[in-house]
Amino acid sequence: MASLALAPTRSWLAPFLQRITAPLALLPVAIALPSLRPLLELFPSIVLAVPKKKVSHSRKAMREANKGLKDKLNIVNCPSCGMPKLAHNLCEHCYRELAHRWKAEARQQGASYSR
Asked: Which keywords has UniProt assigned to this entry (predicted)?
């Protein structure tokens, strides 16, 4: 069955493929294969950059010395409980209390529905 379905496709596709592949067969092998020069022109010089020498531990440490942790300047006190929290964020202490209260209420409602 599969050969019957492919038979009309082969008859239509064969002349097309012959027209495409015929000029390629006449080309010499050296022209058909890409040379190294055009490939290097495609890549910018920055892609092929490689360090000439190993960076010492001391130089690496000096470069990374300014990448330390920065102080938080947006710490405020929660207006309801007074615990320190980040500005424009929920207070962890207040949220924990609310979550416990919501879970307890959900358990009570679930128990009352099951009765």
From this structure: Mitochondrion, Ribonucleoprotein, Ribosomal protein, Transit peptide
